[in-house]
Design a protein that fits this description.
Blueprint: E1 2-3, E2 6-7, E3 13-16, E4 21-27, E5 30-35, H1 37-43, E6 46-51, E7 58-59, E8 64-70, E9 74-78, E10 83-88, H2 90-94, H3 97-101, E11 110-114, H4 117-121, H5 129-140
Antiparallel strand pairs: 1-2, 3-4, 4-5, 5-11, 6-8, 7-10, 8-9, 10-11
Length: about 140
C-alpha cells in the first residue's frame, strides 16, 4: 500500500515511537521489527545501527533498546511492546545502509518474543493503516 510517497506493507502492524516508526511482523512466537519506509526516507541514509540490549534481555514497551544514526539525526529505537529480545540483525549492525536499501526485508532490526497479547492489539493494524499514515504525514509536514 502506498500512502503519499511512503510504502507500507499490509502484512505487518506498525508502532509510532517518539522519533521513529517501526513495523512488526509476527513469525511464529516471535515478532520481527524494523523501521518503515517513512522513517528511512526521513533519515536520508542510516550510517550506524547499535542494539543496546542483548539476546535474552527483557524489554518493556517504550523502553529504548537500540539507536540508529544518520548524517542528519540520531534516533532512539523503542520497544513496540513488552517481551524478550530473541535476535538482533548482525548484518544491519555491520552495514546500516541495508536498512535503507531494504527496510522491510534484509534491513530488519531485531526480533522480540512478546509477553503481552494486549500490547500487540494496540499496534496500528491493516484496517487503520492509511488513516494513521496520512495523519503522520501531516504531523511531520512531509
Amino acid at each position: 500500500m502506498k500512502v503519499g510517497d511512503y510504502e507500507l506493507k499490509e502484512d505487518r502492524a506498525y508502532y509510532a515511537g517518539e522519533s521513529v516508526h517501526l513495523w512488526v511482523k509476527m513469525e511464529g512466537g516471535s515478532a520481527r521489527v524494523g523501521v518503515d519506509d517513512f522513517t528511512q526516507k526521513l533519515s536520508r541514509g542510516f550510517t550506524f545501527f547499535f542494539v543496546q540490549k542483548k539476546e535474552g534481555d527483557e524489554v518493556k514497551k517504550g523502553e529504548n533498546i537500540a539507536s540508529l544514526e544518520s548524517a542528519k539525526m540520531v534516533l532512539g529505537i523503542e520497544s513496540p511492546f513488552t517481551g524478550r529480545i530473541t535476535a538482533a540483525n548482525k548484518k544491519a549492525e555491520s552495514d546500516a545502509s541495508i536498512i535503507n536499501k531494504d527496510p522491510y526485508g534484509e534491513g530488519w532490526l531485531f526480533e522480540i518474543s512478546p509477553s503481552s497479547e494486549e500490547e500487540l492489539k494496540q499496534l496500528v493494524q491493516k484496517e487503520k493503516l492509511k488513516d494513521w499514515m496520512e495523519t503522520e504525514i501531516k504531523k511531520y509536514g512531509v
